[in-house]
Amino acid sequence: MDADLVIVGAGLFGLTVAQQAVEKTGARMQIIDVRDHIGGNAYSYKDKETGAEIHKYGAHLFHTSNKRVWDYVNRFTEFTDYNHRVYTTHKGEVFPLPINLGTINQFFHAHYTPAQAKALIQEQAGELAGTDPENLNDQGISLIGRPLYEAFIKNYTAKQWQTDPSELPASIIKRLPVRFNYDNHYFKDTWEGLPKDGYTAWFERMIDDPRISVSLSTDFFDSSQPFNRDALVGKVPVVYTGPVDRYFDYQLGELKWRTVEFKEQRYDEDDHFGCPVMNFSDSDVPYTRAIEFKNFNPERYEEQNHERTVVWEEYSRFASKGDEPYYPINTAEDRSLYTQYKELAGQQPQVVFGGRLGTYAYYDMHQVINSALMAFEKQIGPMLAQ
Ligand code: FAD
Ligand code: UDP
């Protein structure tokens, strides 16, 4: 084998490391991925019938306030001026999210000013005044009061996590903004957009270099193919972005994840929801949200079919072995198990564990790119220079 570095996983962590390593050191890279495409969970493809760009593993919206990351990604793709906005259906009525003055006034059939709405929510949240909420239920009530919490958070969260909100950590919804004006932008970051030619074109440009080889449908744990764990570790530097517990054959136990599944619907309509993402906050609808991919790219109007549309309904559940791990569940027990795996990982010769699976962390794309840039500077670059 003539590679100087083997990268397991062609997701954003692996691709960023490969791009940096070639650019900064001229080293030769071998990337492998068990899937039949690059891009990891951010992979997308064009739907032939409707012309929609389908995000195969769920809706991916790029956003960041990190100037270094924004400059970096703009080297490989231009971004559209897409701004993420989400709506939610509750008892047959559609409301804007995140909860803002529009949501509050519609819900209470009122015309409150910002100050009046703030006072009302404060009063409704008053039942928990002076406490420091530890679980999601109490956090939700103290953030927006019981009526709004019960309408928009309680059942949605129960569907998404299959766990009673009073048993979930408060941190899950701490990041949800509540606004006392009519601003319904979902993200607060400085930069936001979707890659102009799609995610896959962006990722292909990152590794468009003869010194980077990619082997797809190749499992690191399959000893019948040459790029496997037992053949490589200790002999060549490896960047591993698969699940950390899998690397160690689950010897300390399994880390817990949630997975999502999609059910596709096609309609003889140009536009089914009128927006890209519609949440469903009531328990009688079994899925959490529906994604209408065409609506992410209004600038592609000419290329799209306006008589058909494709929608994916998203169902959430606990992952078992064989499922795609999506969101780390992150109970205290999981955190402590991960700490033990991290210790084992630190003892592996010339192996760098990275990305969301390798470090059991929920990362957005900009965070995973940033962590790959840092890992290259601090660990991988020096390893290649030896
Ligand atoms: P991954 O993309 O998971 O890549 C890891 C790769 O390793 C995979 O391709 C996998 O096949 C490969 N691999 C694993 N095991 C092996 C093995 N044994 N052998 C070979 N290859 C292996 N981020 C945003 O910024 N905005 C969003 O809107 C957003 N939405 C999301 C929605 C959902 C439903 C999910 C799940 C995530 C979302 N994210 C979003 C997060 C985003 O997907 C991640 O930040 C990013 O894709 C992580 O990149 P990664 O390289 O760490 O991991
Ligand atoms: N949430 C909710 N109702 C909604 C949207 C979000 O209750 O309509 C809660 C839910 O608990 C979810 C959390 O807020 O897990 C974070 O939501 P977000 O959409 O930011 O996260 P994602 O599911 O995209 O990771």
TrEMBL record:
InterPro entries: UDP-GALP_mutase, UDP-GalPyranose_mutase_C. The keyword Flavoprotein applies. It comes from the Bacteria. Residues 151-362 form the UDP-galactopyranose mutase C-terminal domain. This is UDP-galactopyranose mutase. Its cofactor is FAD. The keyword Magnesium does not apply. Belongs to the UDP-galactopyranose/dTDP-fucopyranose mutase family. Keywords: FAD, Flavoprotein, Isomerase.
